[in-house]
Each structure stands twice: as structure tokens, then as C-alpha cells.
Design brief:
Strand order of the largest sheet: 1-2-3
Number of strands: 3
Radius of gyration: 14 Å
Number of helices: 2
Structural class: alpha+beta
Strand content: 15-25%
Shape: globular
Length: 79
């Protein structure tokens, strides 16, 4: 997500910054065009401590992950 939004992998200058896409577009691209998760959907999810949509895109790489689910089962929980 961070690379699609910022067009860099670290603190270097963006590579082809004209190819950067907004976070909602990057999220939809990663979820087959879906804009959300509904009951009964097959999904792999990442639960973060902050809303990625409210962060400066440069901070996406450092967002705290508090849980992950794979096919509806917890694979990581930090709380």
C-alpha cells in the first residue's frame, strides 16, 4: 500500500511520482475492487492501531498492526 501511494520503498525520492495512487484506490486494488468487507466474505484482514486513511502516506509503513486474520482465523494478536 505504502509503495503504491508514495511510489518509494523508503525515504528516497519517489520513483515515477506521477504513478502514485490514492490510498482508497490502492486498497480497492488489493481487494479485487471491493470497497469493504461484508458478512460471509472470504477475507484476509489486517487490524491496525490507527486508521490508515488519516495518516500522512509516508507513515503507512510504520503503522502498528494489532492483529491479522487469514480466512477468518486469527493468525496474530498483539492485545
Amino acid at each position: 500500500m505504502a509503495s503504491a501511494v508514495t511510489r518509494t520503498d523508503d525515504d528516497r525520492e519517489a520513483w515515477h511520482p506521477e504513478q502514485a495512487i490514492p490510498l482508497p484506490v490502492a486498497l480497492a486494488a488489493a481487494s479485487r475492487g471491493r470497497d469493504g468487507v461484508r458478512p460471509g466474505d472470504a477475507a484476509d484482514l489486517m487490524i491496525t492501531a490507527s486508521d490508515p486513511g488519516t495518516l500522512d502516506p509516508v507513515k503507512l509503513r510504520g503503522i502498528e498492526v494489532i492483529g491479522t486474520l487469514l480466512n477468518g482465523r486469527w493468525t496474530h494478536r498483539s492485545l
